[in-house]
Amino acid sequence: MRPTEDNYRHKGLRRALVDQIREKGIRDERVLEAILSVPRHFFLDSVFDRVAYEDRAFPIGESQTISQPYTVAYQTELLRVEPFQKVLEIGTGSAYQASILAQMKARVYTIERQRKLYDANKGFDYLKRFPSLQLFFGDGFRGLPTFAPFDRVIITAAAPEVPPLLIEQLRPGGLMVIPVNESADSQRMMRLTKRQDGGVDEERFESFSFVPMLEGRK
Ligand code: SAH
After folding, report:
1. Structural contact between residues 190 and 180, judged by C-beta atoms closer than 8 angstroms
2. Residue 62: inside a domain, yes or no?
C-alpha cells in the first residue's frame, strides 16, 4: 500500500534530507526546492515510511530501485533543466525522478520497459498533479521519435554505451545526462552536449552504481 498522508514529520525529514544533499555538494536551489516539495515516501510502500528520507536507494519491486536522492539531485543538477523544456527520461521506475523534473516545470516524457512498473504508475494518484508528465511503456534505447526533438535527455539506468537514437532525438544545443558502464558494477556519469553541427561534446563526472539499462520490453 502507498501512503497518502504527508505530515509534519515527513516534511521535517525532507528538510533534513535536503540539508544532507546540500552538504554533499548540490548547489542548485531549484533542485533542492523540488526535493523539499516532492513527498518521496509516496513513491515507496508504506513499510518504508520510517526510512523513506534516508539518502539511499530502496527496492520498488521487479528487481528495480528508486534512486538515491543524492543521485537524483546530482543528475538533475547536471541536466540544467529550464521551465517548459521537453525532457525525455529513460527508466521511469518509481517515477520519483520524473516528478522532480515535473515539479521544476519541465514537460516530462518518461519511458519504462517493465509493464508492471508502468501500470503501477498509471494508477498513482500523486502523478495526476503534473499534467505535463507523460508515461510511456517501451524500450528506452529507441526513445520517442514521435515527440522528438528533446531539449534534455536523462538516463536513469546503467547504459552499456550512449544510445545513438537518443542522440538523434536531442535537439542541437541540448544536453544528455547518462551513466555509462566503466566496469561491471560502476558507471561514469557523463554529460553530452549536442553541438549545432550535430557533433557531441562530452564531460565526465563522478562514478555511480545503477541497475542495468536492458533492451526490449517486458
Ligand atoms: N528514475 C527511477 C530509477 C529507476 S531504476 C526512479 O526515480 O525511481 C531504472 C529503471 O529503468 C528500472 O525501472 C528499469 O526497469 C528501467 N529500464 C531499464 N532499461 C530500460 C530501457 N531500455 N527502457 C526503459 N526503461 C528501462
Report:
1. yes
2. yes
